[in-house]
Amino acid sequence: MQLHSNINLIDPKTGQRFPSAPDQSVVLSSVQAGWRTHLTLEVQRLNPMELPEHYIEGHRLIINLGSSVRFGWRTGGQTHEAILPPGGFCLQSNGETNAPFWQDEMTVAAIAIKPEFIETILEDRTPDAIDTFAERRCIGDELAYNYSRALASELATPGEPLYAETLSLAFTLHLLNSHSRKGKKPLSPKGKLSATQLRDAIAIARTQLGTELNLSILANAAQVSEFHFSRMFKKTTGIAPHQFVLRLRLERAQALIKTSQMPLSDVAIAVGFFDQAHFTNVFKRAFGMTPRAFAKAL
Fold this sequence. Notes:
Blueprint: E1 8-10, E2 17-19, E3 26-29, E4 39-46, E5 49-50, E6 54-56, E7 59-64, E8 69-75, E9 78-84, E10 88-92, E11 97-98, E12 100-102, E13 106-113, H1 115-122, E14 136-140, H2 142-156, H3 161-179, H4 195-207, H5 215-222, H6 226-237, H7 241-259, H8 264-270, H9 276-287, H10 291-296
Antiparallel strand pairs: 1-2, 1-6, 3-4, 4-13, 5-12, 6-11, 7-10, 7-13, 8-9, 8-12, 10-14
């Protein structure tokens, strides 16, 4: 199946949107995979090309997942050239102009972050969207590179559905802490969840395992933002929300296999996995055997 780029650029003359990469260049797409995160991630394999001048839609970055690339950009009537090293990245804020070109084939993690997500993190300290991030060109950031590789790996081989959300949040927090233009960094949540908040979040997780459970649902149950919930949940329980929910899914799956005659494909859906193949991969990773082997061993 041919994937389409869902990361758009804007023609400054016409205001028309156009995709950031040709269809045949998109290898993996978080939109096509159904991720419910506040960022869009695509792994793109790009031939040498030059993009026309455009506005950035969403906070945009590319991270080089391959070898060194001869890279350049045009701005203010001037042409700049540099080497985009392995793991190197470029970052711009929503609304900035860009006109990049590259002379070698390259494989990148292309990412667009919704400006409104930044608002939920920085709250009343949020700058104008265009002033959110300092412009970066062809620099190294090992942690950003590691995050992008982990996100791409999760996209290629899905695990716990909530993990992508948690990883996306952590990645965005790193960018805000390390690359904010005006030094606006997230305020670290203080304290832990109350007993009532924790009870309500766990209750909703248990009752909605088989639905599209996400951080927003859990945070709403605790009556805090997603950013605060993720940090406070870990401070309270010692594990991240996605790890807790994955544990619930696997425990529920084991119980269903032991006590019911449900087909494994139905068990997978009942506990919130995408399909039986996804369920089998995660189950085997956790217990060293497939669900079918587990059932036969009973």
